[in-house]
Amino acid sequence: MADAILVSFFMGSANDLKTVQKALELMEKWQLPFRVHTLSAHRTADALDATLKKDIDDGCRVILAAAGMAAHLPGVIASRTVLPVIGIPLSSGSLQGIDALYSIVQMPAGIPVATMALDSAGAQNAVIFAAQILGGIWHDKVQTERAERAAQVLASEQKLQQHGFRSLLA
């Protein structure tokens, strides 16, 4: 077995990397073993199948798939495995992500794809949801992340109360 992984992260385009960057950084922070791929459900179907098979053989337990416009990538992946697939719709094209959201969320019965919010927040939530699915030590990572985010909000509240709203604008 090559380097064991728990999460495979697929993107439909290299242009998606900047949108999902914070999610990838979160997996690095948590030392969650993952691989990132840029493959198209339409243009590189054979490579997608081969990569998916290799990642599953190497221990993948959850798949994240980010795509815009028609956003078939999460659904195509879900049709080829029984592992949980989490879809991340990305804003692009004239419909700014609504088409991607509908494509991912409207899967036929029997081929489920968990669907997150659009863009960076959705990608980060996909990582957190993957950690919740994996359980074990990853639950501790999620709890720590939530506590850190809560502390940030409370620090902003304290700053606001001490110095007024202008302190938050600085």
Nutshell version of this structure?
The chain is an alpha/beta fold and 170 residues long. The protein has helices spanning 17-30, 45-57, 73-79, 98-105, 119-134, 137-163, 166-169; strands at residues 7-11, 34-38, 62-68, 85-90, 114-115.
Give structural notes:
- It is a single chain.
- With 170 residues, the protein is of the alpha/beta class.
- The protein contains seven helices and five strands.
- The longest helix has 27 residues, at 137-163.
- It is globular and about 60 Å long.
- The protein starts with 6 loop residues before the first strand and ends with a helix.
The pLDDT mean sits at: 94
Level-2 CATH architecture of the largest domain:
3-Layer(aba) Sandwich
CATH class designation of the largest domain: Alpha Beta
Strand percent estimate: 5-15%
| Helix-strand string | EHEHEHEHEHHH
Shape: globular
Q: What helical percentage do the residues reach?
A: 40-55%
Structural class: alpha/beta
* Major sheet summary line: 5 strands, parallel
Q: Helix count?
A: 7
Provide tags for this entry.
170 residues, alpha/beta, Rossmann fold, 2 domains, five-stranded parallel sheet
Topology:
Elements: E1 7-11, H1 17-30, E2 34-38, H2 45-57, E3 62-68, H3 73-79, E4 85-90, H4 98-105, E5 114-115, H5 119-134, H6 137-163, H7 166-169
Parallel strand pairs: 1-2, 1-3, 3-4, 4-5
